[in-house]
Amino acid sequence: MNNFTFDEANHIYKLSGNVIPGVTQIISESGFVDLSFVNEEYLAWKGDLGKKVHKATELYDQDDLNIETLNPTLKSYLDGWIKFENDYGFNVYNIELEMYHPLYKFAGRLDRIGVIAQDKKYDYVLVDIKSGVKMKHHAIQLAGYELLYNYGKPRFEQIKRRLCVYLNPDGYRVEEYKNVNDANVFLAALTMHNFKNN
Fold this sequence. Notes:
Helix content: 25-40%
Strand content: 25-35%
Number of helices: 5
Strand order of the largest sheet: 4-5-6-7-8
Number of domains: 1
Shape: globular
Number of strands: 8
Largest sheet: 5 strands, mixed
């Protein structure tokens, strides 16, 4: 994977020097995400909050966070994440995993891969962390990540469940996406993206 790079500041993926689209970019440019009705200032604030919440949960899971110095607002979101991990017995295997699909030539950054202790089969679970409200395209986004992770892996190593954990100052809410057609919708979005850009 030496020829695969990710510029986090500009959110650009490259494969052998060529820019390839990310999952969220594909979904946005295919018309699945319309935030034109949202105030730009509020959107920027929510985007900044989302990045900081993600970083706080990342550092926490890496055991590299001084919680005492954390902003109280961020701590309230982090508390929701910690409660989710404890309630579900979620054991993290991968954090912010950057991947590309060698066949379909797209990339993404998966928040968490792990297992849920309550699940006696110990299947791999994809967890995406959100600090906003549930939106319809989240199911398609996670399907794109699932395609990334599962490609080329034997069945016993593949993701079997897709969860969004919606964090808020009062805790968390979990949504599981089970529709097998979500992957087909994502691939249709990828086809549309490629058509528009080629």
